[in-house]
What we know:
alpha+beta, 24% helix, 298 residues, 5 helices, Rossmann fold, 3 domains, four-stranded antiparallel beta sheet
Amino acid sequence: MVGARHRLTDAATDRFALAGARAVIATMHGKEQVIAPVLADALGLVCDLAQGLDTDAFGTFSRERERTGTALDAARAKAKAAFALVPGARVALASEGSFGPHPHIPFAPMGRELVLLVDRETGLELAGHDTTLDVRYAHVIARTLDEAQGFADRIGFPQHALIVMGCAGGQPAPHLALRKGITTPAALAEAVSMAISESGAACVETDMRAHYNPTRMAAIARATQDLVRRHASRCPACVYPGFAVTERIAGLPCEWCGTPTALPMAEVRACVACGHREERPALGPTHADPGLCPRCNP
């Protein structure tokens, strides 16, 4: 990139450099195990844990407390609470996950992970993301212990822990019975038997807390790596971090007839600080498969 203002400065003059800065991670579920090493290695952050922070106050997967707002809202609230506990920290980090059915693929579960970095010295707020179909997110209404054990075998138990709760009208009812972090067959049998005796059936589901779900922990690591990439992607006009794709423009031409398709032909990158925008050709093929063309394959 030509011009002094278009070159990233060295660590001594880059106001967004974080080498040696103290960071606090807002988690009570072991996420620091995958977040801290990535950020220490890539950004030089010195990471501490927000000891005593109850992140369940911002929402639980087991439904005792509903999350209010978006995943980003929850992560911001966790970061704010972490700063309050560790006032000497320059940076706060928080993670939030969302799980549900894939919007376009029937019966396929999808997971989204967000890892947020807040730098109160510069005002920088930056999030890394991971979206995947590789999730252990499922549930079953079991009326017998055999049904519950069959589900456990399919979901990867005991490496992936389970939650068992009561059931009312075919819906989970944690107020009737609730047991989390189940990692042994004996504990599973006890919890299922108790739920069935209390409500006639047991809702058995994967425990989505990170320290009980290694597949989710791997997704959090990938989101942290995405955060590092975004921190390194600087606006060519003002060097603000997070110069990322904000829009994809459809219209990739058909390989046979040239008709525009729904596939992206260009990407728009934008800076949240100064508003600078750049349109670039989308990565990948220069033409679309005719099978995706509205004219060749109507």
